[in-house]
């Protein structure tokens, strides 16, 4: 078919077919880091190699004999008189087991692995170290093994003048040759994080110093003692669960179910209901057997769509949802897919499967029997593809940004709604008489869905725009586009213009008029958002309220801006927020985006700290800001009683190399603002979902929360009580016992 290439391309984008065309396998991905960015001549530094290994693959380590069989991980360093190797390459926490195939002990990693090589610095100056790595990755799925060879670079390491003579060590000659572990009994070198100078506190190791303070390399995450949760304060119900996953899944299942109902009233599906049902109500089968066949038919439809959800969930992998939620590439792909689907529904082109696929499936359905019923269901899915593909693709795109179970839940909800009428009408065929006749109204539904697809597409573009600070789609431009699309939909429903595949509109039905009213009402609701209105019903889908092109707000009472009013409550002038040139707080709150800076300010002002673990792609974060933070009681406490710090866990801003560190949580080098904030939340507080709110005493060296942190709390009164309880605990800690 002339348009078959379109759907093949879109299926590739959505990942429904998987990477079947890939010929070059790269199951192991290596990255490098230094245990510290600076050193003196004579100091020892560790070179760190982190390995990320694909699911169902393993990477052979360096701490087993190369005579066993598999390729042992080796490094061959480029000769350089500026340093010398100290000891051997060390494999950190590799798995050892007896391999029945190779008849010997092997060592390997799954998911992640790490190697470390200690060196001694011999000369001053910037030092970049190169080494050729050879290794082997294998999978137990089909026994396939893939050799790996690549050049790794470490540094540049900033080396300064001579240091005091170091203690005697077993120092090898300057690096000139291959290094690997042949003696499996050799002790594993302790990670360099244990050898950091005592001046580096646990807090600075967990979070890097800001530009206005002396920077100290961070290489260790907070200790377990720091990560222990604080007790809840009596009288306040604290929610320790970061997200209500069950509620979120139910809401998404309901949304998918609604999408399934919408798919039923498209031109490709609705006319097929009576045609399909007639197959189960005619013939010599008894009523009971006909009902059973109808149930099998409906179950087959559900199984086909749920299988799609399972495939998407498997293909995403463990880190898939987080990557898709914030990375620019998948968000731009989804944006393009939604736009293409929307234009298809508007009639620009038609998405169809090749005739060969349709004919093959239809032939199998004609064979009859229980297998024939399954292929009848598959025929329905294939034939209705041009109308259901945009809806199914939309659900899978949205689901891919959440938990791994969401694609399955989404397809289950969609298929239940999609299969329900076919099954019910087969059981109660007399109901068919109540169905409206096919006609132009079906195309109207399709056009409405096209406008909705175009509006939803903006969310994906906005997510990438916020995370990477492209400044392409701010809140006002976003709202303007929605206003225009909503108004166009309203005029279309009133018959003010027709699209190419529309039939003439002789009269305006009541249903069409009511839909036009809803479209115009939505457009009018959006207009105040151009001038600063929070639009709480859409808070999770719109960009945050920061800089706007239009604003009716001028100054606060007394002629001062809200920011100035907030800042004036401080006894001393506040520091300029680091990262404030591209990050902002809602409601003109005066705050920070770096925890160390917030602590300094809080100590000067004798206030507790309000930590907001948030994200550009966090829907519930925007809802909290628009509907809870906007409450007068909450906003007053945030503005006057706390120093607010927003820590974005998905921001892509790369930090200076001197601030990079290797996390003790996953042994990965954290180079961006978002990755370091996410690592802080996980290592110190044991949660990785947003929003997440923590209250701290800036003078508490243990970094214990004042009270138990909470997550999403849509009740403004409860959230205000949470802030009040933290403030009370802060005051109690600072009040001498004799004065209480």
UniProtKB/TrEMBL annotation:
Parts forming coiled coils: none
Segments forming domain Cytochrome C biogenesis protein transmembrane: 250-462
Ranges where the Thiol:disulfide interchange protein DsbD N-terminal domain occurs: 37-152
Membrane topology of this protein: Multi-pass membrane protein
Top-rank taxon, per record: Bacteria
TM stretches of this protein: 249-273, 294-316, 328-349, 370-396, 408-428, 440-458, 478-495, 516-542
Compartments in which it is found: Membrane
Pfam (any one): DsbD_N
Keywords linked to the UniProt accession: Cytochrome c-type biogenesis, Membrane, Signal, Transmembrane, Transmembrane helix
Signal peptide (UniProt feature, chain positions): 1-22
Protein name per its UniProtKB record: DUF255 domain-containing protein
């Amino acid at each position: 078919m002339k348009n078959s290439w379109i759907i093949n391309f879109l299926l590739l984008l959505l990942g429904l077919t998987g990477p079947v065309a890939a010929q070059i396998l790269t199951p192991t991905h290596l990255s490098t880091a230094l245990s510290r960015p600076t050193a003196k001549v004579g100091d020892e530094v560790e070179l760190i190699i982190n390995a990320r290994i694909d699911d169902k693959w393993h990477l052979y380590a360096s701490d087993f004999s190369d005579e066993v069989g598999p390729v042992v991980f080796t490094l061959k360093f480029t000769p350089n008189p500026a340093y010398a190797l100290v000891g051997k390459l060390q494999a950190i926490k590799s798995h050892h087991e007896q391999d029945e195939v190779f008849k010997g002990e092997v060592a390997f990693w799954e998911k992640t692995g790490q190697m470390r090589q200690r060196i001694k610095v011999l000369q001053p100056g910037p030092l970049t170290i190169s080494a050729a790595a050879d290794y082997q990755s294998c999978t137990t799925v089909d026994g396939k093994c893939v050799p790996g060879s690549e050049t790794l670079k470490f540094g540049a390491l900033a080396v300064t003048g001579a240091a005091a003579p170091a203690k005697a060590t077993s120092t090898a000659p300057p690096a000139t040759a291959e290094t690997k572990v042949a003696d499996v009994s050799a002790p594993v070198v302790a990670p360099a994080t244990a050898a950091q100078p005592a001046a580096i506190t646990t807090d600075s190791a967990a979070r890097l110093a800001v530009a206005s303070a002396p920077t100290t390399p961070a290489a260790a995450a907070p200790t377990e003692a720091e990560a222990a949760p604080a007790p809840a304060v009596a009288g306040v119900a604290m929610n320790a669960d970061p997200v209500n996953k069950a509620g979120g899944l139910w809401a998404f299942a309901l949304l998918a179910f609604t999408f399934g109902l919408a798919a039923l009233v498209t031109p490709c599906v609705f006319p097929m209901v009576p045609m399909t049902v007639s197959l189960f109500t005619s013939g010599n089968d008894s009523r009971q057997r006909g009902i059973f066949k109808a149930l099998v038919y409906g179950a087959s439809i559900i199984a086909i769509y749920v299988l799609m959800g399972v495939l998407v969930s498997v293909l995403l992998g463990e880190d898939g949802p987080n990557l898709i939620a914030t990375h620019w590439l998948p968000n731009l792909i989804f944006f393009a897919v939604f736009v293409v689907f929307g234009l298809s529904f508007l009639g620009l082109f038609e998405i169809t499967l090749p005739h060969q696929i349709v004919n093959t499936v239809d032939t199998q359905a004609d064979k009859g029997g229980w297998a024939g019923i399954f292929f009848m269901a598959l025929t329905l899915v294939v034939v209705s593809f041009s109308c259901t593909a945009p809806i199914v693709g939309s659900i899978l795109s949205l689901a891919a940004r959440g938990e791994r179970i969401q694609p399955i839940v989404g397809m289950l909800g969609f298929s239940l709604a999609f299969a329900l009428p076919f099954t019910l009408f087969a059981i109660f065929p007399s109901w068919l008489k109540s169905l409206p006749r096919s006609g132009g109204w079906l195309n109207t539904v399709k056009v409405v869905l096209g406008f909705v697809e175009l509006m939803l597409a903006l969310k994906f573009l906005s997510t990438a725009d916020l995370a990477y600070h492209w400044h392409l789609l701010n809140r006002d431009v976003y709202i303007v586009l929605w206003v225009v699309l909503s108004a166009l939909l309203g005029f279309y429903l009133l018959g003010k213009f027709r699209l190419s595949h529309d039939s003439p509109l002789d009269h305006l039905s009541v249903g069409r008029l009511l839909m036009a009213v809803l479209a115009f009402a939505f457009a009018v609701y959006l207009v105040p958002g151009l001038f600063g209105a929070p639009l709480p019903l859409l808070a999770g889908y719109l960009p945050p309220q920061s800089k706007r092109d239009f604003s009716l707000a001028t100054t606060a009472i007394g002629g001062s801006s809200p920011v100035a009013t907030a800042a004036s409550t401080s006894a001393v002038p506040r520091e300029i927020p680091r990262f404030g040139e591209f990050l902002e707080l809602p409601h003109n709150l005066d705050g920070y985006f770096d925890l160390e800076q917030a602590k300094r300010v809080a100590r000067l002002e004798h206030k507790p700290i309000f930590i907001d673990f948030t994200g550009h792609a966090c829907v519930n974060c925007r809802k909290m800001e628009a509907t809870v933070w906007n409450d007068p009681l909450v906003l007053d406490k945030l503005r006057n009683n706390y120093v607010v710090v927003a820590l974005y866990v998905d921001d892509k801003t790369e930090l200076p190399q001197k601030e990079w560190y290797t996390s003790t949580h996953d042994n990965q080098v954290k180079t961006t603002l978002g990755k370091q904030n996410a690592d802080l939340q996980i290592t110190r507080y044991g949660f990785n979902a947003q929003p997440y709110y923590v209250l701290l005493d800036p003078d508490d060296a243990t970094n214990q929360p004042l009270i138990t942190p909470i997550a999403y709390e849509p009740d403004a009164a409860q959230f205000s009580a949470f802030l009040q309880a933290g403030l009370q605990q802060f005051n109690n800690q600072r009040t001498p016992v004799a004065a209480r």
